[in-house]
Design goal:
The protein is α+β, with helices and mostly antiparallel strands and 268 residues long. It contains seven helices and 15 strands.
């Protein structure tokens, strides 16, 4: 559902600089920075491409190569200009990969201002942990099983952090026996097929966790591992066909439930 009067809709439909709220400005500026940080794997300017696929439409479809090529030309986060509460961009943006995380960070601030020390907020795939459990123990957060709907593959014990999972199994359509999901590889304009089935990010930074879960999914296991080594501020759980890769900051906090999977620790 798109709200026609929202800041994002106006940026997409109007030409020139559009006045936006302080939150929209911050959200877009963070998205731009994370795009640069991830070498473009996270890209909020892919909307012309995802519109072609129509993942949120009643009748999604596989676009032609020509259509995809033309839509890819319209992207580029470097061209988004942000100045004094105004945003201008001659393409279209889609903040679906970071908005929930940003919203979670706002909820976290509201809780802090109101003396709420213990809470869990779940925004579809984004879990925001405020403090630990009232009894002093950490929270248990289930990591969705990518193949068995409703099941968990394992759970993580954590406090005061964001735990965000992106998976291609969440939203997809099937055409001629092939399934196509909603996370787009900005290099190809096609759904990312990187060898990752789901990517979970754990971080103190809610917006970063959300955006990176999408970016790591696009990168694939090898690139994601390299990226983690050179980037501070997050841990990750990557599920591939063969194994579950877990970075050492949270390795001991993960409890495997489905013993058919092998767990591998990644160190710096
Ligand atoms: P969800 O929002 O379904 O929980 P994600 O956080 O992984 O899952 O975000 C996926 C959404 O992000 C897509 O629906 C789309 O709006 C947007 N998106 C798709 N591909 C990319 C990408 N490469 N970079 C940034 N955003 C993307
Ligand atoms: Mg995300």
């Amino acid at each position: 559902v798109t709200d026609e009067s929202s800041d994002i809709s106006r940026i997409n439909s109007e030409t020139g600089a559009v006045s936006v709220s302080a939150d929209t400005e911050k959200l877009i500026s963070r998205a731009k920075n994370i795009s640069a940080l991830t070498g473009g794997a996270f890209d909020i300017t892919l909307r012309p491409v995802s519109k072609l696929w129509g993942f949120t439409d009643k009748a999604p479809r596989v676009p032609s190569d020509d259509e995809i090529r033309a839509a890819l030309e319209k992207r580029g986060t470097a061209r988004i200009e942000i100045t004094d509460g105004k945003v201008s961009f001659d393409g279209e943006i889609d903040v679906g990969g970071i908005a929930k995380g940003y919203a979670a960070s706002l909820i976290r601030s509201i809780f802090a201002e109101n003396g709420i020390d213990h809470a869990v907020v779940s925004l579809g795939g984004n879990v925001m942990l405020c403090g630990g459990r009232p009894d002093g123990a950490p929270w248990n957060v289930g990591i969705a099983h990518p193949e068995k709907e409703g099941d968990i593959i394992g759970f993580l014990t954590a406090s005061d952090a964001a735990v965000v999972t992106s998976g291609g199994y969440e939203r997809f359509f099937t055409q001629n026996g092939e399934s196509y999901h909603h996370i787009i590889d900005p290099d190809t304009g096609y759904p990312a097929q990187s060898g990752i089935i789901s990517a979970t990010v754990i971080s103190k930074d809610d917006a970063l966790a959300d955006a990176l879960s999408t970016a790591l999914y696009v990168m694939g296991p090898e690139k994601a591992e390299r990226f983690w080594r050179e980037t501070d501020g997050f841990d990750m759980i990557l599920i591939t066909e063969k194994e579950i890769l877990i970075t050492d900051g949270i390795f001991e906090s993960f409890n495997l439930q489905d013993k058919n999977f092998k767990v591998t620790k990644i160190g710096k």
